[in-house]
Write a structure and sequence with these properties.
- With 158 residues, the chain is α/β, with parallel strands linked by helices.
- It contains six helices and four strands, in the order αβαβαααβαβ.
- β3, α6 and β4 form a beta-alpha-beta unit.
- It is globular.
């Protein structure tokens, strides 16, 4: 485990170094990503983002929207996969409200890593609808950024 006797496991500074190295390893996928942003998932793997959220003690919210055909489907799937309350209004305003205010009122938040995978890209969920959806998450990132809470959202299109 240790390369020589001078690196004894019961030295306090050794534990600190190992803990900091573990945190740095966990944070590697996000080290060059601003703390409050909405961006394409690109080279990130969902599992790596989930592991980073776990290592950072942040909430991980994931929605796979591949089967959505309409705005209503997208909202229904996000509500179901994010486990929104049953009174969720199923519109973009309600989505923003669920991503911000109730969470803020429930106490201190450690941060969020959100993944919206395979957002539909077809006539019933056109470019305007996709931009409106992403704007909700951009607004949520700004909301949490104003409160100094990390909120990173990654997305991909179908």
């Amino acid at each position: 485990m240790f390369s020589n006797a001078s690196q004894a496991p019961n030295r306090p500074e050794t534990g600190v170094i190992l803990m900091n190295e573990k945190k740095a390893e966990t944070d590697i996928p996000l080290r060059n990503v601003r703390t409050n942003i909405v961006q394409s998932i690109r080279a990130f793997r969902v599992q790596d983002l989930q592991d980073a959220a776990l290592g950072l003690g942040q909430h991980f919210l994931y929605a796979n929207l591949a089967n959505a055909q309409s705005k209503q489907d997208v909202l229904d799937m996000i509500a179901q996969q994010f486990t929104f309350p049953t009174h969720f209004g199923k519109n973009f305003d309600a989505l923003y409200d669920c991503m911000t205010d109730p969470l803020h009122k429930s106490g201190p938040q450690p941060g969020f890593i959100v993944v919206l995978e395979q957002i539909p890209a077809h006539a019933k969920f056109d470019k305007e609808a996709r931009e409106q959806l992403l704007d909700i998450f951009r607004d949520a990132a700004d909301y949490w950024g104003d409160r100094k809470i990390p909120f990173r959202c990654f997305y991909s299109f179908l």
